[in-house]
Design brief:
Radius of gyration: 17 Å
Strand order of the largest sheet: 3-2-1-4-8-6-9
CATH class: Alpha Beta
Helix content: 25-40%
CATH topology: Spore Coat Polysaccharide Biosynthesis Protein SpsA, Chain A
Largest sheet: 7 strands, mixed
Order of helices and strands: EHEHEHEEHEEHHHHEHHEEH
Strand content: 15-25%
Length: 260
């Protein structure tokens, strides 16, 4: 099966550079990359074009005009352009380990979605990596314990120990916990069956929980990707969360309507 990795980005070329480099080093190469660009300036387009010329990755750039935070819409537009049967949603500030795609492929199963996990990087470590402009996982992993002891990363063990598939990964019902749109995977046909992400949910927050809830309500089971698919989430300042409460209210409203 071919996989499409959909990388969401917005005006952060330095982070996107490291993410794309990490995708170049994947042990599993049977995938394409679609950069879902939520209205970035011309700089991002120029960077992707230049990067693609020398990269072994198959890269598509899907862009729409900047009219505020419209992550749901740009992910849907990218999904429409995907040639893969299976979709992995990744954020443009989340560096993938070399076995990231391979691990997601291992966990992929019909009638299931996978919610992955992340390791948070400190601001200081993030700046150090961005200054280098070159991603080297072996070099990074050699200092994992130091990074953990000095607060550079918030997790250590999930990067050192990885586990296979099993029923222990299955969620029996919908829960908000550990839903991260920065590391999420499902079959393209399943995403299309629920009309993708809810495009009326604009602004930061909870469009990923809404997406997972609607998939599960459509009889798609949820599987945890923790202790297998962790990504390295570069530090960034908090986004404008003025719409978060309203988005959360709308998700809860859907949940209540479906359970009454």
């Amino acid at each position: 099966m071919k996989i499409s990795v959909i990388v969401a980005t917005y005006n952060r070329v330095d982070a996107l550079n490291l993410v794309l480099q990490s995708l170049e080093t994947q042990t599993d190469s049977n995938f394409e990359v679609i950069v879902a660009d939520d209205g970035s300036r011309e700089e991002t387009k120029e960077f992707i074009s230049k990067f693609a010329k020398t990269s072994k990755l198959a890269i598509k750039h899907v862009w729409h005009e900047d009219k505020g935070f419209r992550l749901a819409l740009i992910r849907n537009l990218a999904t429409a352009q995907a040639s893969g049967e299976y979709l992995i949603f990744l954020d443009g500030d989340c560096i993938a380990q070399p076995d990231f795609v391979a691990r997601h492929r291992m966990l992929a199963q019909k009638n299931f979605l996978v919610t992955g996990s992340r390791v948070l990087l400190s601001e200081a470590l993030t700046q150090e990596l961005l200054r280098s402009a070159h991603w080297d996982f072996k070099l990074f992993s050699a200092s994992l314990l130091k990074y953990r002891l000095t607060g550079g990363i918030n997790k250590f063990l999930p990067l050192k120990f990885k586990f296979g598939d099993g029923a222990w990964r299955h969620y029996k019902k919908f829960v908000w916990r550990r839903i991260k749109g920065c590391n999420l995977a499902c079959w393209k046909t399943d995403a299309q069956a629920i009309n993708g992400f809810d495009e009326t949910m604009t602004g930061w927050g909870h469009e990923d929980a809404d997406f997972v809830f609607r998939l599960q309500h459509n009889h798609i089971k949820r599987k945890s990707g923790s202790w297998s698919t962790e990504v390295l989430h570069l530090f960034h300042k908090m986004s404008d969360q003025s719409n978060a409460a309203e988005n959360a209210r709308r998700v809860r409203e859907k949940i209540m309507a479906k359970t009454l």
